[in-house]
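Subject: Predicted fold for SulP family inorganic anion transporter, 534 residues

User T.R. writes:
Posting the sequence so we have a shared reference for the thread.
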Amino acid sequence: MQKNKPTFSGSDVKKYFLKKNLKKDLPSSIVVFLVALPLCLGIAFASGAPLFAGLIAGIVGGTVVASISGSQLSVSGPAAGLTVIVLGAIAQLGSYQIFLLAVVLAGIFQMVLGLIKAGTIGNYFPSSVIEGMLAAIGLTLILKQLPHALGVDSDFPGDEGFFQKDNENTFSAITSALNHVSLAAIVISVLSIAVLIFWPRFKKLSIVPAPLLVVILGVAGSLIFAGTEYQLRTDQIVSIPVVNGFGEFLGLFTMPDFSALGNPKVYLVAATIAAVASLETLLSIEAVDKIDPIKRVSPTNRELVAQGIGNITSGMLGGIPMTSVIVRSSANVNAGGRTKMSAIFHGGWLLLSLLFIPQIINMIPLSCLAAVLLVTGYKLTRISLFKHMYHKGWDQFVPFVVTIVAVLLSDLLIGVGIGMAVSIFYLLRTNMRNPFFYKIQDEGDKKNLRIKLAEEVSFLNKAAIQVVLTNIPKETNVIIDGSNSRYIDPDVLETIFNYKHNAYTKGIIVTLENIQKHYTVPKLTNKIVEEINN
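User M.O. replies:
I've generated the C-alpha cells; pasting them so everyone works from the same file.
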C-alpha cells in the first residue's frame, strides 16, 4: 500500500519561505544597519540637524516605510541629496521645529503624488541611465570611502557630491588622505577588505556575516592600537549620542511647530523636499529592481505613499526627511537580502543600538565600515557591466557613460538629468529615422513609390517624412499607405494632405490608402486592464 503523502496548507508554505528567507534577511539586516548607522549620523550633521534626527529618520525608514512599501529590497533613510536643501531650509525658516512642520507637509504631498499615480514617472527612466547611475554610485562609493579607509577625511560619511563641505573635491580628498595616512586605519581597512572577499568562500563559516566579523576585528584593532602613537582619533570612530535612561531618550524627540501653518515659506520648502525626495526614491526603486536577483518589480505609486507616511512620522518625531537610498539598498542586495524583513530589522537594530549599546557602537572604526562600502561599490561598478552596455550599441553605451561622468562630477540628480537628456537625444534620433518603410517599382517611364507608415507616427517624424516627400522626383506615382498605423500625429497628417494637394504641379500622382483624417491616441493599456478585471 502506498503511504499517504503529507499535505501542506498555505500557511505552512508561507512559514517555510519566511524561515528560508529569514536565514538571509537577518544577516543582511546587520550589514545594512552597520552601513546605515554612520550615514544617518553624517547626513544629519551635514544638514545642520541634531544627530538624533538622522537616527530617527533611519529607524522610521526601516520600520515604518519598509512595512508599507511594496519593494522587497529597498532601504529608506536620510539621503545625501537632501543635505543642502535641509541645511538651507532650517536657516531660511529660522527654527528647527518649523522645519519639522515642512517635513510633515512634504510627506502629505508625497502621499498625494502616490494617490494620483505620479509614481509611473519612474517607468520612463531609460535602462541605460539607471545602469549608469548604479555604476556611478559604485565609483562614488569607492572614491569617497578611500579617504575614510586611509583614516584621513573631514568630510561626512555618505556625501555623494563632487564638491565637499571641507573645501575638497572627490579627487583632491584622496590626494590629501594619501599625504596624511593613519597606519591603524589602513591595517583595519585592508584586513576588513580581505575578510569581506575571502570569508564568504568558507561555506561552513559564512553563517557569521562577513561585515559583522569585520566590525569585531575593527573594534579589536582599535583596542590594540589604543595607547600607541597610532591610536585612532575620535573623528575616525563612529559616534552616536549616549542615552542615559528612558527619560533622557524621550527628551530627544522634538515636535513640529504647527503655529507656522500660515507661513508660505513652509509650503515652498515642503514642496521642494517632496519633489526631490520623490524623484530620488523613484530612481532608487528603479535601480534596486535592476539588481534584484529575483527581478521583482516594485509598485512605484505605493512607494510614494509609503515614503509620505514615513516623512510624516519622521517629522512628527523630530527626524529629518528621507528617501529610498540606493547605497543602503545595494548593500542589502549584495549582503543577500531577500525580503523587506531585512530593512525592517535594520530599523530595529538602529533603535536597539541607541538604547542599549551606544558605548560598544562608539568603538567601531569608520575605516572598517568604509571597507564594506568599498566592496559594495566594486560590485556595483564591475567591469562586466561596462562590457555588457558596450555590446548593446552606442545608443545605450553613450548615455550610460555620460551618466557616470555627470554623476561623478556633480551629484545624483544633476547627473541623471544630463544622462536623460543624452538618452532622449538618441531616442529622438532613432524615431526620426524610422517613421516609414518604402518600396520603389518601375512601370515603363514612371516610377511607383509605396511609402508604408509605421505603427506610431509622432510629430518627431514630421521632419523626416517632409524631407522624403520634398525630394521625390517629378512624374512619380506615390502611394502613402497607413494600414499599419494605429496613430498618426495631426502635424504629420497635415504634411501628407498638403503634399497631395500640391504634388500635381510636379506631375506627381498621390494616392492615400487607409489614412484617416483624424486619429485618437489608443488607450490599449486601460483596455487590457479592463478585460483582465472582467
